[in-house]
């Protein structure tokens, strides 16, 4: 007998939604109606849910959850009382879900069950909350923004009443109860989408971005020189850069660096606008603030910092002296971490091409710096060190040899 024989199981949520959209189904989640915890345990299921009964199938490892209802008991997203027993219906379980397009189910014969209009909203390309209970969980604002990013290229929009509800949630202080780990978890998933900019735009539309990421929110309305930035607005530019980074690289670190590369422009003194002299260094403390607050992994912090500090120099590589180029390679730790240096160059390319009218332009700077790094890194620094008459001379001998190698690779450099 199979583990599910005789159980009333329903495929729910994203698997149903994505199949209807013609997208690849990444994972399958099921709801079990009319069963108890003991019954599933006796069938070999492994319980993994702490706050509510979720189980792994003994063979497929797909998730099976008992049908449940939830009741708000305290602010934030931890404040819920969960009720799961054999009397909870499928319709009651679907009612507690966030969006109508996620409140779809299929029975074991493949028949669609759609009690809240999810199919119509899929066809109309609308993201709409299932019930007023949406307002009880602030994580749903992040999920809404993430789904808006995921389905942006399919033309999905957010229903007016849903956007108004999110604004009311922000005004009520619900997003202030979000814990950093969950904010970063949703943000990281959104950065993995093809149009990650939409995540931040939705959060800005409802007011949540100013609460969660004020360093990014304040970039909108900050002018830049039109000669270099036809889009002028810094916030618009950063979103273009972010989407370009998503086009150029699947790496989370590159996309996060693109998001943060111009944070220093958000606190440029007004009397020097639209110039942003010194924004590279000003951005470093802001990046640290975001990473500390949201507990963002160090690998993302490190690339974001080096991108913020060095992107201006990377853009101007053809104007730099050989010694300045070596300083850039040293500051970015290119000799020890060449793969991260390549990520830096990709983030810089996204910055260059993330401007109105620049999307299809070439970025030779990346190729030039890649060749110069190879030339300088090819030296036998061990032999250079052994040839030095005194240990104190070793660093300068290595530096001189690397500058010479860079000049040889680019004879036009001083």
Characterization of the model:
The chain is of the alpha+beta class and 414 residues long. The radius of gyration is 26 Å and the shape is elongated. It has helices at 14-21, 37-42, 90-95, 118-124, 139-150, 160-171, 180-191, 197-206, 208-212, 214-217, 234-248, 252-260, 279-294, 298-315, 322-331, 338-353, 364-377, 381-387, 394-409; strands spanning 8-12, 29-33, 46-47, 54-56, 63-66, 69-72, 80-83, 105-106, 112-113, 126-127, 157-158. Strands 3-4-5-2-1-8-9 form a seven-stranded mixed sheet. Helix 12 (252-260) packs across helix 16 (338-353) and helix 16 runs antiparallel to helix 17. The chain has 19 helices and eleven strands. Strand 4 and strand 5 (63-66) form a beta hairpin. Helices cover 49% and strands 8% of the residues. The protein has a domain at 1-118: 2-Layer Sandwich (Beta Polymerase, domain 2), CATH 3.30.460.10.
